[in-house]
């Protein structure tokens, strides 16, 4: 059985072995691993995997958190833009309805003025004061419809 100090020494040396390249030497059918190329025989440099970065997991989690936060901000911004677009569409529909009401009121006023003029042309028509009052009432209705 190995003494605990030997195990500790092997662990310490094992960490230092990753510091440089490792060579695999084949000499007379024997395979030897060394930190320098062999003087005689075939030697092959082995690619040692880099030691895992202890901060890599923390960095990956930080990036995931950042991505999640950015996606949430983007979703919030998109929702606000959609809400503004819906409000704009409602305002445009309301403005179109007001314009239609205003145009209708203007047409009605025009017809009423024509009717009043035709009535005034008749001998038995209403008096001038009544015609002016009706014209004033239709103008007020048109103005009220167009002001909204």
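Q: What amino acid sequence fits the structure above?
A:
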């Amino acid at each position: 059985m190995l003494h605990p100090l030997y195990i500790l020494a092997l662990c310490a040396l094992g960490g230092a072995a990753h510091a440089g390249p490792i060579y695999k030497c084949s000499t007379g059918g024997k395979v030897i691993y060394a930190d320098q190329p062999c003087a005689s025989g075939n030697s092959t440099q082995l690619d040692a995997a880099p030691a895992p970065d202890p901060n890599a997991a923390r960095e990956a989690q930080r990036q995931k958190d950042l991505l999640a936060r950015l996606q949430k901000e983007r979703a919030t911004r998109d929702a606000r833009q959609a809400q503004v677009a819906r409000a704009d569409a409602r305002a445009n529909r309301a403005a179109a309805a007001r314009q239609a009401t205003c145009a209708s009121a203007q047409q009605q006023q025009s017809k009423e003025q024509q009717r009043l003029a035709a009535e005034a042309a008749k001998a038995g028509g209403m008096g001038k004061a009544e015609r002016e009052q009706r014209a004033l009432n239709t103008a007020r209705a048109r103005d009220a419809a167009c002001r909204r």
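Q: And what stands out in the fold?
A: The chain is about 70% helix and 10% strand.
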